[in-house]
Specification:
The protein has 225 residues and is an alpha/beta fold. The chain is built from 8 helices and 11 strands.
Protein backbone atom coordinates (compact mmCIF):
# COMPACT_ATOMS: atom_id res chain seq x y z
CA UNK A 1 0.00 0.00 0.00
CA UNK A 2 1.42 3.39 -1.00
CA UNK A 3 0.60 6.33 1.28
CA UNK A 4 1.36 10.05 1.10
CA UNK A 5 1.62 12.01 4.37
CA UNK A 6 1.32 15.80 4.03
CA UNK A 7 1.97 17.40 7.41
CA UNK A 8 4.06 20.52 8.05
CA UNK A 9 4.83 19.66 11.69
CA UNK A 10 8.06 17.75 11.02
CA UNK A 11 8.22 15.72 14.24
CA UNK A 12 4.65 14.53 13.83
CA UNK A 13 5.27 13.80 10.16
CA UNK A 14 8.24 11.61 11.05
CA UNK A 15 6.28 9.75 13.76
CA UNK A 16 3.44 8.93 11.35
CA UNK A 17 5.82 7.90 8.58
CA UNK A 18 7.80 5.65 10.94
CA UNK A 19 4.64 3.95 12.22
CA UNK A 20 3.30 3.29 8.73
CA UNK A 21 6.64 1.93 7.54
CA UNK A 22 6.69 -0.39 10.57
CA UNK A 23 3.30 -1.61 9.35
CA UNK A 24 4.87 -2.39 5.97
CA UNK A 25 3.51 0.55 3.97
CA UNK A 26 5.46 2.43 1.31
CA UNK A 27 5.29 6.04 2.52
CA UNK A 28 6.27 9.41 1.04
CA UNK A 29 6.32 12.56 3.17
CA UNK A 30 5.53 16.13 2.16
CA UNK A 31 5.76 19.19 4.39
CA UNK A 32 3.53 21.64 2.51
CA UNK A 33 0.57 21.50 0.15
CA UNK A 34 2.55 22.42 -2.95
CA UNK A 35 5.06 19.61 -2.40
CA UNK A 36 2.21 17.19 -1.74
CA UNK A 37 0.54 18.11 -5.03
CA UNK A 38 3.82 17.47 -6.87
CA UNK A 39 3.99 13.99 -5.34
CA UNK A 40 0.38 13.26 -6.28
CA UNK A 41 0.94 14.41 -9.86
CA UNK A 42 4.04 12.23 -10.20
CA UNK A 43 2.80 8.94 -8.82
CA UNK A 44 -0.13 6.75 -7.85
CA UNK A 45 -1.08 6.55 -4.17
CA UNK A 46 -3.63 4.32 -2.47
CA UNK A 47 -4.47 7.10 0.00
CA UNK A 48 -3.24 10.52 1.14
CA UNK A 49 -3.32 11.88 4.69
CA UNK A 50 -3.50 15.68 4.59
CA UNK A 51 -3.14 18.31 7.29
CA UNK A 52 -5.51 21.22 6.71
CA UNK A 53 -3.34 24.10 7.90
CA UNK A 54 -0.24 23.74 5.72
CA UNK A 55 1.94 26.40 4.05
CA UNK A 56 1.87 27.04 0.28
CA UNK A 57 -1.53 25.33 -0.09
CA UNK A 58 -3.91 24.28 2.69
CA UNK A 59 -5.41 20.80 2.73
CA UNK A 60 -8.84 21.90 1.49
CA UNK A 61 -7.34 23.77 -1.46
CA UNK A 62 -5.05 20.83 -2.18
CA UNK A 63 -7.98 18.41 -2.38
CA UNK A 64 -9.86 20.81 -4.68
CA UNK A 65 -6.76 21.05 -6.92
CA UNK A 66 -6.42 17.24 -6.96
CA UNK A 67 -9.98 16.67 -8.04
CA UNK A 68 -9.79 19.44 -10.65
CA UNK A 69 -6.80 17.62 -12.18
CA UNK A 70 -8.54 14.25 -12.09
CA UNK A 71 -6.48 12.85 -9.21
CA UNK A 72 -8.91 10.54 -7.41
CA UNK A 73 -6.64 9.41 -4.55
CA UNK A 74 -8.74 8.97 -1.38
CA UNK A 75 -8.00 11.61 1.27
CA UNK A 76 -8.07 11.51 5.06
CA UNK A 77 -7.86 14.92 6.72
CA UNK A 78 -5.78 15.02 9.90
CA UNK A 79 -6.05 18.39 11.62
CA UNK A 80 -6.50 20.38 14.81
CA UNK A 81 -9.50 22.14 13.26
CA UNK A 82 -12.39 20.40 14.97
CA UNK A 83 -15.32 22.70 14.13
CA UNK A 84 -18.31 20.92 12.61
CA UNK A 85 -18.16 23.35 9.68
CA UNK A 86 -14.59 22.25 8.90
CA UNK A 87 -15.51 18.56 9.06
CA UNK A 88 -18.47 19.10 6.78
CA UNK A 89 -16.38 21.11 4.33
CA UNK A 90 -13.65 18.48 4.21
CA UNK A 91 -16.12 15.66 3.56
CA UNK A 92 -18.14 17.68 1.04
CA UNK A 93 -14.97 18.44 -0.91
CA UNK A 94 -14.49 14.71 -1.35
CA UNK A 95 -12.47 13.60 1.68
CA UNK A 96 -13.25 10.04 2.78
CA UNK A 97 -12.50 10.67 6.46
CA UNK A 98 -11.66 13.44 8.94
CA UNK A 99 -9.57 12.95 12.09
CA UNK A 100 -8.94 15.57 14.75
CA UNK A 101 -5.64 15.98 16.62
CA UNK A 102 -4.61 14.66 19.08
CA UNK A 103 -5.21 11.21 17.64
CA UNK A 104 -4.23 7.57 18.04
CA UNK A 105 -1.69 6.18 15.56
CA UNK A 106 -3.44 2.81 15.73
CA UNK A 107 -6.73 4.44 14.82
CA UNK A 108 -5.11 6.32 11.94
CA UNK A 109 -3.70 3.06 10.56
CA UNK A 110 -7.13 1.43 10.87
CA UNK A 111 -8.80 4.34 9.07
CA UNK A 112 -6.19 4.16 6.30
CA UNK A 113 -7.01 0.48 5.83
CA UNK A 114 -10.73 1.27 5.81
CA UNK A 115 -10.27 4.06 3.25
CA UNK A 116 -8.34 1.77 0.91
CA UNK A 117 -10.92 -1.03 1.31
CA UNK A 118 -13.63 1.42 0.32
CA UNK A 119 -11.59 2.48 -2.72
CA UNK A 120 -11.13 -1.16 -3.71
CA UNK A 121 -14.79 -1.97 -3.13
CA UNK A 122 -13.78 -4.57 -0.53
CA UNK A 123 -16.17 -4.94 2.39
CA UNK A 124 -13.63 -6.44 4.79
CA UNK A 125 -9.89 -6.57 5.37
CA UNK A 126 -9.72 -9.95 3.60
CA UNK A 127 -8.75 -10.21 -0.06
CA UNK A 128 -9.22 -13.59 -1.70
CA UNK A 129 -8.38 -15.32 -4.96
CA UNK A 130 -9.25 -19.02 -5.23
CA UNK A 131 -7.92 -20.54 -1.97
CA UNK A 132 -5.43 -17.73 -1.35
CA UNK A 133 -6.48 -15.32 1.40
CA UNK A 134 -4.66 -12.16 2.55
CA UNK A 135 -5.82 -10.13 5.54
CA UNK A 136 -4.60 -6.53 5.58
CA UNK A 137 -5.53 -6.08 9.26
CA UNK A 138 -3.44 -8.99 10.57
CA UNK A 139 -1.01 -9.39 7.63
CA UNK A 140 -1.83 -13.11 7.67
CA UNK A 141 -1.65 -15.02 4.39
CA UNK A 142 -3.05 -18.50 3.89
CA UNK A 143 -3.48 -20.86 0.97
CA UNK A 144 -5.90 -23.78 1.31
CA UNK A 145 -5.93 -23.01 5.03
CA UNK A 146 -2.15 -23.29 5.36
CA UNK A 147 -0.48 -20.24 6.86
CA UNK A 148 2.29 -18.79 4.69
CA UNK A 149 5.03 -16.75 6.40
CA UNK A 150 6.21 -13.82 4.28
CA UNK A 151 8.85 -11.14 4.70
CA UNK A 152 7.70 -7.52 4.77
CA UNK A 153 8.52 -6.96 1.08
CA UNK A 154 7.01 -10.30 0.03
CA UNK A 155 3.81 -9.37 1.84
CA UNK A 156 3.75 -5.86 0.33
CA UNK A 157 4.17 -7.28 -3.17
CA UNK A 158 1.48 -9.91 -2.68
CA UNK A 159 -0.92 -7.33 -1.25
CA UNK A 160 -0.36 -5.14 -4.31
CA UNK A 161 -0.94 -8.10 -6.63
CA UNK A 162 -4.10 -9.34 -4.90
CA UNK A 163 -5.60 -5.87 -4.64
CA UNK A 164 -5.10 -5.64 -8.40
CA UNK A 165 -5.94 -9.27 -9.21
CA UNK A 166 -6.67 -9.89 -12.85
CA UNK A 167 -4.70 -6.84 -13.95
CA UNK A 168 -1.35 -7.09 -15.70
CA UNK A 169 1.15 -5.05 -13.68
CA UNK A 170 4.45 -3.92 -15.16
CA UNK A 171 7.70 -4.41 -13.29
CA UNK A 172 7.97 -0.62 -13.01
CA UNK A 173 4.52 -0.34 -11.42
CA UNK A 174 5.27 -3.09 -8.93
CA UNK A 175 8.65 -1.61 -8.05
CA UNK A 176 7.19 1.88 -7.53
CA UNK A 177 4.34 0.53 -5.39
CA UNK A 178 6.51 -1.66 -3.17
CA UNK A 179 9.88 0.10 -3.06
CA UNK A 180 9.05 3.67 -4.11
CA UNK A 181 10.37 5.98 -6.80
CA UNK A 182 13.66 6.60 -4.99
CA UNK A 183 14.67 2.95 -4.92
CA UNK A 184 18.22 2.48 -6.17
CA UNK A 185 18.64 -1.27 -5.76
CA UNK A 186 19.00 -3.97 -8.37
CA UNK A 187 17.04 -3.74 -11.60
CA UNK A 188 15.76 -7.34 -11.26
CA UNK A 189 14.39 -6.94 -7.72
CA UNK A 190 10.80 -7.52 -8.86
CA UNK A 191 11.71 -10.76 -10.64
CA UNK A 192 13.60 -11.95 -7.56
CA UNK A 193 10.64 -11.35 -5.25
CA UNK A 194 8.18 -12.87 -7.71
CA UNK A 195 10.33 -15.99 -7.57
CA UNK A 196 10.21 -15.94 -3.76
CA UNK A 197 6.40 -15.62 -3.83
CA UNK A 198 6.01 -18.42 -6.37
CA UNK A 199 8.03 -20.72 -4.12
CA UNK A 200 5.75 -19.95 -1.18
CA UNK A 201 2.38 -19.50 -2.90
CA UNK A 202 2.38 -21.72 -5.99
CA UNK A 203 4.98 -24.43 -5.43
CA UNK A 204 3.20 -27.77 -5.07
CA UNK A 205 -0.23 -26.30 -5.86
CA UNK A 206 -2.28 -27.76 -8.71
CA UNK A 207 -3.51 -24.31 -9.72
CA UNK A 208 -0.89 -21.60 -10.22
CA UNK A 209 -1.92 -18.04 -9.34
CA UNK A 210 1.14 -15.92 -10.24
CA UNK A 211 1.58 -15.61 -14.00
CA UNK A 212 4.14 -13.93 -16.24
CA UNK A 213 2.84 -11.92 -19.19
CA UNK A 214 5.83 -11.87 -21.49
CA UNK A 215 6.96 -8.35 -22.30
CA UNK A 216 4.39 -6.78 -19.95
CA UNK A 217 4.84 -7.95 -16.37
CA UNK A 218 2.91 -10.13 -13.94
CA UNK A 219 -0.69 -10.88 -13.07
CA UNK A 220 -2.34 -12.66 -10.13
CA UNK A 221 -5.24 -14.71 -11.45
CA UNK A 222 -6.75 -18.17 -11.27
CA UNK A 223 -5.92 -20.46 -14.17
CA UNK A 224 -4.29 -19.62 -17.45
CA UNK A 225 -0.71 -20.17 -18.46
Amino acid sequence: MRVLIAEDEKDLNRVIVRKLREEGYNVDAAFDGGEALDYLRAGEYDIAVLDVMMPVMDGFSLLSAMRAEGIETPVIFLTARDAIEDRVRGLDLGGCDYMVKPFSLLELVARIRAGVRKKDGNASSRYQLADLVLDTATHEVTRAGRQIPLSAKEYAMLEYLIRNKGLVLSREKIENAVWGYDYEGGTNVVDVYIRYLRQKIDEGAAVKLIHTVRGSGYVLKEGGK
